[in-house]
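I am still getting used to backbone structure tokens and would like to learn alongside you. Please make up or recall a protein chain and show it to me in full. Would you write everything just below, so we can both look at the same thing?
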Amino acid sequence: MVNQNITATEIGFTHEDFAALLDKYDYHFSPGDIVPGTVFSIEPRGALIDIGAKTAAYIPIQEMSINRVDSPEEVLQSNETREFFILTDENEDGQLTLSIRRIEYMRAWERVRQLQAEDATVRSGVFATNRGGALVRIEGLRGFIPGSHISTRKPKEELVGEELPLKFLEVDEERNRLVLSHRRALVERKMNRLEVGEVVIGTVRGIKPYGAFIDIGGVSGLLHISEISHEHIDTPHSVFNVNDEVKVMIIDLDAERGRISLSTKQLEPEPGDMIKNRDLVYDKAEEMAAKYREQLLAKQQGITVSPAAEEVIAEEDIPPATETEEEITASIEEEIPAVVEEEIPAAIEEEIPVAIEE
């Protein structure tokens, strides 16, 4: 017969022992940890999540996604298990605050850094414009296209809803800046169809003291003043006017900088023909370009070429056809909105990297 008068000492495991055991094996959760959790209960503006702590953790609706969420059911389902980011330490009730949005931001920044390293071209639709440019979303992050890097004649306002090919100019998670270029993507695509030594027809879109910018099929190339003619020219204005149609030869393609260098000097049958007899230069353009390509090929094969073919313009004399990253940063510093949307509750605001709103 079983003795029912068993004492607590004989059992050897009291309620106090059980509580101590729970404390001993209780996980320590810290802000910044990523932990698995199961949806315990869905609330009107959030959800309770079981992550193995003494008290169910809470995720507010604004932390459920990198995108706007109107209802918790758009993201979470009861009994669903997934990863959560611990956003804040325990409050006075011992409850942790969680986030899915923070995980999505971390992975989005990692992805765009990878895309930038690969020099990838991405596509995204314009969802808004401001006085400085256009706004798009890349991997859920808000990106900015400076007006100087939007290569279209449409008014910016008409771009909303239009999908554009884009290249990365700046990816800076610490400063919360994601800057892109539509122009650079078009230049690269156009460059893939162009060749050095090819003759193209373009339109003069701008004239500077150092040369003329020529539109060739939607991208801009630079006809440097030293490449207009073998004879000295004081200013490009003495040879060209804006909107002039010109025939030029491509002498350099720099995809990394988005620069196309052009020449009419190499098309002159005789030195000074661009000044004295431009029509003759255009009539003989293909013939002179063929000779230029032969000289290039001979040079590549180590064969001596004529001095004229060896003329090189000093790198510092050629301004880029498009702005550099430094010039972009200086000119649009006040126009770049933050990537992070300002929807962060005050209680957890210090946990989000500071966004620049200038």
